[in-house]
Amino acid sequence: MSRLPELSTVPSLDLNRYLGTWYEIARLPIRFEDADCTDVSAHYALQDDGTVRVQNRCLTVDGELEEAIGQARPIDDTHGRLEVTFLPEGLRWIPFTKGDYWVIRIDADYTAALVGSPDRNYLWLLARLPQLDENIAQAYLAHAREQGFDLALLIHTPHTGRLTEQPLP
């Protein structure tokens, strides 16, 4: 079995510009997100302790809001590599319970981003709006392929507009 080279991340991520709401355009299947969820978004907010509050939201097939609250923190000086946990706050100290969240591509305007894990099992194409120009999306997905991601099972996330009308608490 060939070993993949280390996943390349952005040389520098301006965390303050990255904060705010991102919409999931596409992703690889993940066990903790229903494949039929629509209107998937993530909202990032800086906390007083320097960590980032993560609020993931989606609508189920039944139209119910699903939400997960987590915490991310940069693990290097570039801020392009973060670790994330969605455990309850009192359990976040437990070792080996954090996932890798590595920003592997972002545009200069911080309107499109590609995020993955170094084992290539997780991948998200994100945008500031619920839709992303197809040419831009294809360029980002080509970059993912070049980085060793298998996109055969890629899920394109539908956006109905129902969730964007609900305010974030």
Explain the overall architecture.
- By secondary structure, the protein is mostly beta strands.
- The protein has one domain (15-156): Beta Barrel (Lipocalin), CATH 2.40.128.
- Helices cover 10% and strands 36% of the residues.
- The protein is built from two helices and nine strands; from the N terminus they run αββββββββαβ.
- The chain has helices at residues 15-18, 134-146, and strands at 20-27, 38-46, 52-59, 65-74, 81-85, 99-106, 112-116, 123-127, 155-156.
- Strands 1-2-3-4-5-6-7-8 form an eight-stranded antiparallel beta barrel.
- β3 (52-59) and β4 form a beta hairpin.
- The mean pLDDT is 88.
CATH superfamily: Calycin beta-barrel core domain
Mean model confidence by pLDDT = 88
Question: Low-confidence parts lasting 5 or more residues at pLDDT below 50?
Answer: none
**Tertiary shape:** globular
CATH topology: Lipocalin
Q: How many E-type strands?
A: 9
The proportion of residues in beta strands is 35-45%
| Biggest beta sheet summary | 8 strands, antiparallel, barrel
- Helix/strand structural class: mainly beta
Instruction: Bin the helical content.
Output: 10-25%
Number of DSSP helices?
2
